[in-house]
Amino acid sequence: MKSFFAITFCVLVLLSVVAWQIKPDPPPGKIPLVWVSDDNPARRQQIALFNQLHPEYDLRLDPRASTAGIEKVMLQSLAGVGPDLADAFSPSDLDAFVRSGVAWDITEELAERGVDLEGEVWPAILPTGIREDRVYGFPANVAVDAIWINKDLFDAAGEPYPEGPWTWDEFLEVAERLNVRDARGRIKQFGFLCDWWQWPQFIMLFGGHIYSEDGTRCVIDGPEATEAIQFMRDLMYEHHVMPTPVDEATMATQGGWGSGTITYFGAGKGAMALGGRWWLCTLRDYEGLNLGVVEIPHVKEPRYRAYGRATVINRYSPRREEALDFLVYEAGKDYNDLINRQADAVAAVVRYNYTPEFLRNPEHPEEDYNEVWRDVVKYGRSDDWSSFVNGQTAMRILNKQLDLIKSDQKPVPKAMRDAAREVNEEIAKTLEMDPSLRIQYYRLTGRERPE
User: Fold this and answer.
1) How far apart are CA 46 and CA 359, in angstroms?
2) Is the residue at 102 inside a domain?
3) 255 within some domain
4) Does residue 221 lie within any of the structural domains?
5) Angstrom distance (rounded) from CA 357 to CA 252
């Protein structure tokens, strides 16, 4: 097994070196910078603005490395052929970058440039940039979701627009009235659309957790988390207000970035949808959409999932000092105003969301609901994560079990128990391989291994 991993490592390093050597040269006199992020079309304008403000640089995007996962980015970086900048999309991503030694500790460097991360950024996104009181990344944006409504579909049904705060019982009554069936009784317009990957949001809403507070155990089989996923499953199979996988298979989508539920909603296949402000990067392409936004229904208190990106600097980059200019750019007015104009979620720096232009974009005066997006960020909470397990490995385990629930192939309680057990087994494997983590685990629990 060790030889397999060694061979795989060497092959990936060789391929990375080849890719590095054949990449196009920057224009003469320019300092090249490579940024690994997702392929959201908004990145092009963000890069163009940076290059305009900093003509000495030639910043370019590498979306393929992002698609391949952070393991490839870390591997390339450790091999000396990595990007200068890379986005962490979760606290667990940041933890992986930090533990691998790839993320550069920029606490003093940002302070010297007058950037105060904790004093300027929404608290909910800080865990994607800070680890153990040290700064490793600057948040590029922050998203907290809400309920999109298609006002035209509400008007056609004679249904008043919902207003928050509201409950899930009230939500269900509205969603059921907004289901529209064809002559054969099949639902052609659903009351509610929701990506299944939103399951962490429902767990948070119901007061559940994925990991214990110290991260030593997966507790996704707890009563609150189980109730949350049962409710999410019942939206499809009991209340029939949300499409099942079979229903989704019959819906046509255009594909590309932002496909799926966003395009279903833009095409009028659902009256409400759970999503973020960043959906506008796609929804603005649909002419005539009459949209509104309302906060997600409460269970006991507002508990909304916050997520987003934070850009880290590759410690092994020969241009890491130059790469700092990009993080300072992300902290500045030009970048944050651009994020808000593009609707690439919400600007991470709080003060840039309290402007007349944020509330009413002159280019999109019909978007009169931006105050809702700003308000829900105040209640945002970061995802649960654990230092004792690879985040992507754990997510694959969790998604495998959650997908069985989605397809109605496994009862919710059993799937949640199996998910917790498998992740905890993975934690045990991690502790066996990493003595430093085992010591940390012992300090937190008094045990060397999970029970």
Assistant:
1) 21
2) yes
3) no
4) no
5) 36
Give the other-Cβ count within 10 Å of 251's Cβ. 17
Instruction: State how far the alpha carbon of 393 is from the alpha carbons of 102, 108, 352, 426, 427, in Å.
Output: 19, 33, 36, 8, 10
Q: Would you say residue 57 has pLDDT above 50?
A: yes
Radius of gyration of the chain (CA): 23
Structural domain boundaries enclosing 81: 23-143+306-373
Pairing of strands 57-61, 31-36: parallel
Helix axes 91-100, 391-406, angle to 10 degrees: 150
> Sign (positive/negative) of CA torsion 222, 224, 225, 227?
positive
The model carries a pTM of 0.90
Paired tokens of 305: 């999932």
Can you list the positions of beta strands (E) in 27-91?
31-36, 57-61, 85-88
CATH number at residue 27: 3.40.190.10
Query: In which residue are the tokens 């060790």 written?
Result: 2
- List of residues 6+ apart from 336 with CB closer than 8 A: 330, 347, 348, 349, 352
Structure tokens at 366: 């019909």
Could you identify the residue written with the tokens 């009554």? 173
User: Count of domains in the chain?
Assistant: 1
Structural domain contains residue 68: yes
Tens of pLDDT, residues 212-239: 999 999 999 999 999 999 999 999 999 9
